[in-house]
Amino acid sequence: MEIKLHPPITNASGPHSVTYEELERIAQSAAGAIVTKSMTHCPRQGNPEPRLRAHLDGELGSLNSMGLPNLGYLEYAKFIPKLKEFGKPVIASIASAPCAHKLPPIEQYYEIATAIERAGADAIELNLSCPNLEDIPIAMDPQSVRAVLTAVTNAVKIPIGVKLAPYNNVPKLFDQIARTLLDFDIAYVATINSEPLTLDIDLKTRTKVIRPNDGFGGLGGPAVLPIALAEVHRFYKFFQKQKARIAVWGVGGIIRAEDAIKHFLAGASVVQIGTLFLWDGPQAFEKLWVGIQRWLQENGFSSVEEIVGQVREI
Ligand code: RRO
């Protein structure tokens, strides 16, 4: 099932997408859809602070170990009808996390997905790749990916996207995950989540820049652009070869219009912005879209579709 967005730009789940007020600001912006922070079964405070360094030295990117702070899916179910009034798709990002009731992850995904569909969400983005929980992400285990997708795709009718981790240095796992996805009716993969287990150091204080998880967290922003482009391109080529109708949504390192153009050329049909939205707020969508349109015009194209996957070999 396809999701068409205009413009083909959304926020990446996470930054400024936890509260109703934040989601309303996305709704009022030029973004083509509203993506929520990943919601869990129980509300969560997240990790102890400092848990986010928005600006790494040299504007390399951002580093976080937020730990899934969110209001819990029942609150988001209440927001969704109000958000829909803005007339753009509402995409509910869903994650599982340890919770007092000890519900297994598959059941958490199932219960949240069915409730959120009933609440009127236009699509679900299954976040299988949070880098900041104790357990290894579901995205790193093909059997668990299959189990979640079986439970959710059998239960809901709205389009489903899957947010994946970078697999750059594990080609065999990329292949297993990509093949697993072919067995399901999935609208899109969003790749990449932040680059996991990265570290930075503050030279003024000689401390790690964030506190949780021994200072290790997920990296986003300009530093990850080539990693994201590689993942987008690998998925795009794989789905083309298999004649699978799964779109690739590019996430990672988009700060300027040119970065988004690279994602489109690599095979993304939609781009999501995380660190840029963290840095610049809702005006980032308009600015990026104007820049993309200018690049298209200056280079003789009339739409994004014309350049999707059109990178050339040298
Ligand atoms: O909340 C987080 O720590 C977090 C999540 Br769920 C995610 O998917 N990606 C990320 O960088 N941080």
Q: What would your notes on this structure say?
A:
The chain is of the alpha/beta class. It has helices at 20-28, 73-84, 105-118, 142-155, 171-182, 225-241, 257-266, 275-280, 283-298, and strands at 9-11, 34-35, 52-53, 62-64, 90-94, 123-127, 160-164, 188-191, 195-198, 201-202, 207-208, 217-220, 247-251, 270-273. The mean pLDDT is 98. The strands form 3 sheets. It has an 8-stranded parallel sheet. It has a 4-stranded antiparallel sheet with strand order 3-4-12-9, with no helix packed on it. Strands 10-11 form a two-stranded antiparallel sheet. Helix content is 35%, strand content 16%. The protein has 9 helices and 14 strands. Helix 3 (105-118) links the parallel strand 5 (90-94) and strand 6 (123-127). Helix 3 runs parallel beside helix 4 (142-155), helix 6 packs parallel to helix 7 (257-266) and helix 7 crosses helix 9. It has one domain (9-307): Aldolase class I (TIM Barrel). The site of ligand RRO has 16 residues, from loops.
User: Major sheet: size, sense and barrel closure?
Assistant: 8 strands, parallel
CATH superfamily: Aldolase class I
What is the helix/strand order? EHEEEHEHEHEHEEEEEHEHEHH
Number of domains: 1
Please report the first level of CATH classification, the CATH class: Alpha Beta
List how many beta strands DSSP finds. Answer: 14
- What is the molecular shape? globular
If you consult CATH, what is the topology? TIM Barrel
Q: Which small compounds were modeled alongside the protein?
A: ligand RRO
Category by helix and strand content:
alpha/beta
Rg of Cα set: 18 Å
The share of residues in extended strands comes to 15-25%
Mean of all residue-level pLDDT scores: 98
Name of the CATH architecture: Alpha-Beta Barrel
